[in-house]
Design brief:
With 502 residues, this protein is an alpha+beta fold. Helices cover 40% and strands 21% of the residues.
Length: 502
């Protein structure tokens, strides 16, 4: 047998280079921890190599499928809620808002009202002692006219000093100075105790343990029901809501109606919900500019963002663009910024018989495209603080209290009924009530939204899939990097040798 030695030196060198590269790749393939590759490298037949190659490709495809699913699951940003029940004491006493169920005082209302109806030839009367159901139908337009002319309605509302007979917090007296006021279309002037104020620190709020007490607010109120406007007011008493110190009091939606002749107890329990911001939840705590303008009507209160109010504001904007006027029940939302011009206008209220704004708001709320234009910043609140209220009541008026209440009513600024001297006991019973707001428990329910998957979870999931199907780990990647490094280094060596030989 003879051996043929090639005479072409270049061919010999190329073969040596190939053998050197081949040995590096083969060494990697035989020793790598990645499953399947060693089987291909040590295979002694084509069938054996095909078997391991098909197995490696198949399991790699399955691995890639599950890895992609794991990554997509992460970018779905799934969340879960954790409930923690925390015992906290002391804690802030909540804000308490009260409103007389009648928005208007008859004695201050009737004369301007008659002037209005007589000027429009709706009535022809100067009788300030009687009031008919027909006249009551003109009241909404009378109020709308006053608001559109920017005329004050303050004198027609019930002042807190005329209603607040006694006020105590944790056994010590409080006064009208501890309340701030605001106006609603349904209840006139309302008053809030313990609201968070702008430019004040947290120490300005009342704690539940002040004066060694347990957080008990007691208000003795007199509603002067003899001054309710006939055929207009539908109930006698007080409307109250317990809310967070930095939250707008939604009296119309969440108010609890309290009747005279009773001593009412509102026992509260606090619940807090904390949502994750984007990309997990489309939520915000940022107050839009239109809402900031509206909040100036709350006399210095430092109230925050409320999604419900945000939708009311964008509904007002759309109603104005479609109708030239806005919902007449939302007096505080008249300063609006129009998206088409970015101009701020002071919108007029619609007349009571003009229902254009109702159709406009319904159109807006039923169209996602319109909401994206007018309500784009109306996201869910990231922080929600609610109070669950347990109500109960007892009979209120005792004989030994009657004379004190009588003296308070006689010294108030509101005129007495004509038969007061004969029937004052009945009037007192029909207008007097007590409101006690107490803490039911120290326990606070905290609902916290947490991400179900984080980066560590995704990496662990990917590592589990790669290890299960083809045995890849970070060390396997380092082995591959080492092979690339050795091949690159060998190639650089060949280039340097070629340069020196030139």
């Amino acid at each position: 047998m003879s051996t043929i030695i090639p005479n072409d030196k270049t061919a010999v060198k190329d073969e040596r280079k190939w053998h050197r590269r081949h040995s590096i790749i083969r060494e990697f393939s035989l020793n790598t921890s990645t499953h399947g590759i060693p089987g291909i490298a040590r295979g002694e037949s084509i069938q054996n190599r095909v078997f391991w190659s098909v197995s490696l490709i198949g399991f790699t495809a399955i691995m890639i499928y599950f890895i992609v699913k794991a990554i997509l699951a992460y970018f779905d940003y799934p969340t879960q809620f954790n409930l923690d029940i925390v015992s906290k004491w002391p804690q802030y006493f909540p804000a308490v808002t009260i409103c007389n169920s009648s928005p208007l005082r008859f004695d201050k209302f009737i004369e301007p009202f008659l002037n209005y109806t007589n000027s429009l030839n709706l009535t022809n009367s100067n009788d300030t002692s009687t009031f008919s159901p027909l006249q009551a139908t003109y009241i909404p337009d009378f109020l709308i006219d006053k608001v559109n002319k920017n005329e004050s309605l303050e004198s027609m509302f019930y002042s807190l000093s005329s209603m607040l007979y006694k006020c105590t917090y944790n056994g010590l007296p409080c006064s009208t100075a501890d309340f701030i006021s605001f106006t609603t279309a349904y209840y006139g002037r309302c008053y809030t105790f313990n609201a968070k104020m702008i430019n004040s620190n947290s120490n300005s709020l009342h704690y539940g343990n002040e004066n060694g007490g347990n957080g008990i607010l007691e208000l003795e109120l007199y509603v002067h029901n003899h001054q309710y406007v006939p055929c207009f007011t539908t109930g006698i008493g007080v409307v109250s809501v317990v809310h967070d110190n930095a939250q707008i009091p939604l009296v119309d939606a969440a108010g609890i109606e309290l009747a005279p002749r009773r001593k009412h107890k509102l026992a509260y329990k606090k619940k807090q919900t904390f949502l994750l911001p984007l990309p997990y939840t489309p939520c915000t705590n940022k107050v839009p500019s239109d809402m900031q303008t509206m909040l100036t009507h709350y006399n210095g209160a430092d109230y925050g963002y409320v999604e419900f109010v945000c939708y009311q504001i964008c509904g007002q904007v759309y109603a104005y663009e479609q109708c030239g006027c806005i919902d007449p029940t939302l007096w505080n939302i008249r300063s609006l910024t129009l998206p088409s011009t970015n101009k701020t206008i002071f919108a007029p209220l619609c007349k009571s018989n003009d229902t254009c704004f109702i159709g406009a708001v319904n159109t807006l709320l039923n169209s996602f495209d319109l909401q994206n234009i007018y309500c784009f910043d109306c996201l869910q609140q990231c922080t929600l603080k609610n109070f669950f209220i347990q109500t109960s009541s007892l009979a209120a008026v005792f004989e030994w209290e009657m004379n004190g209440i009588k003296a308070f009513v006689e010294n108030s600024s509101i005129p007495l009924p004509s038969d007061w001297s004969a029937a004052w006991r009945t009037y007192v019973q029909d207008s007097y009530l007590v409101l006690r707001v107490v803490r039911e428990t120290n326990l606070i329910e905290n609902y916290t939204q947490n991400a179900q998957l984080n980066v560590v979870d995704v990496l662990s999931n990917i590592g589990g899939q790669t290890g299960l199907w083809i045995g890849i780990s970070f060390l396997s990647l380092m082995e591959f990097i080492e092979m690339i490094y050795r091949l690159s280094r060998y190639q650089c060596h060949l280039i340097q040798v070629a340069i020196r030989r030139r």
